[in-house]
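Table 4 source record.
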Amino acid sequence: MTQAIVVEKNGGPEQLSVQNISVGAPKTGQLRIRQTAIGVNFIDTYQRSGLYKIEMPFVAGNEGVGVITEIGPNVSGFSVGDKVTYQGQVGAYSAERLLDAERAIPVPDGIEDQTAAAIMLKGMTAYYLMFKTWPLAKGEAVLFHAAAGGVGLIACQWAKAIGARVIGTAGSAEKLALAKAHGCDEVINYREEDFAARVKELTNGRGVDVVYDGVGKDTFEKSLDCLRPRGLMVSFGNASGPVSVPDLGILARKGSLYVTRPTSAHYFADRQSMLEAANAVFDVVASGKVKVEIGATYPLANAAEAHEALEGRKTTGSVVLTP
């Protein structure tokens, strides 16, 4: 038996139940791993709340790192004792788990366990946003909402390394300072300023080439006013609630804009694309161009507390659970 955090019905953080579960032996194509660190992400809260539908009951979480303890039939390329990480496979909030070998990513030397748990889902999100959804080029201007969050801190540093002009938003002086120290050229307190007006002022009326928005409902429509004509609005999260666009004509009126709602499942549907992204994340971290900020760690049993902090916008950087 192993400790895990189970969701039996949708609701708030109180639905994260500490239970002892049986993991069992790995089946064909699977690995059994003993986890050493687990990443906490907004998608975990969406699945728990019911915004994203998932079959009940389930072990929460989508990202972790651990050591292989057992290998199932028809698995090659891995050995017992290897350290692996993963993202996008539900069941992470557990001291031990079974993992599809196809989704296991070898952790290179020099990457610590908590760092690996903090960067896979968030770092690979930053990768597809800036290299696939909108291949960011030197000299382009971007607006990144929640710039002091887990994805934001990674993405803003990475965008700066590419040579982009990075404008970030956050909701407190502390978060603004953190964003400024992690790649943002300019920062805007969205609680105190009209961020659309400020973006237009900073860009001499032109607007930015692309907006990356993981906040959702509260920032979506005003973000359209931040874009240059034919710019791209990338809505990749729902921290404040889901987005609704009832009138597509608004895109024409605001400059023949483009809008996309990407997810990692479609960018990393095969192992080759997944490993390409993971290796890019490892490389940029190893180079020092992206410094990983772990804002808080919680014991696995305190996962509900971690969710409360994340949803309450009380966190900065990545949040990690330790079994």
